[in-house]
Design brief:
The chain has 104 residues and is an all-alpha fold. It is built from two helices and no strands. The protein has one domain. It is rod-shaped, with a radius of gyration of 34 Å. It starts with 11 loop residues before the first helix and ends with a helix. The relative contact order is 0.04. This is Cytochrome c oxidase assembly factor 3.
């Protein structure tokens, strides 16, 4: 039969330990200083994450605006080139008409 690729599973114990948030207030056997320090570290981490999220949002916004800008620019370029082509065509037609009237 078909062979199934086996993904390496994480040990459930480690995953649970990683997923469980450490609450300094509920952790037994900690001095008040350690609790305070852990709370401070936690706040710093949250601030850093918030900053990273803001940067990510700004980056995504900039890329989106860039894509929109480029699209508008290329569309207007295309329209400009079309108009230029029509102008050239009209000029050629006028030149032909002049040449014909001069030849007659």
């Amino acid at each position: 039969g078909p062979s199934h690729g086996t993904g390496m599973p994480l040990e459930p114990g480690r995953e649970a330990a990683f997923a469980r948030r450490i609450d300094p207030r509920r952790e037994p056997g900690l001095s008040p200083e350690q609790r305070l320090h852990m709370a401070r570290v936690e706040r710093a981490l949250q601030r850093r994450l918030r900053g990273r999220n803001v940067l990510l949002a700004l980056g995504i916004g900039a890329v989106t605006l860039g894509i929109y800008g480029y699209t508008f620019y290329s569309v207007s370029q295309e329209r400009f080139l079309d108009e230029l082509e029509q102008e050239a065509e009209a000029a050629r037609a006028r030149a032909r008409a002049r040449a014909e009237s001069a030849g007659s």
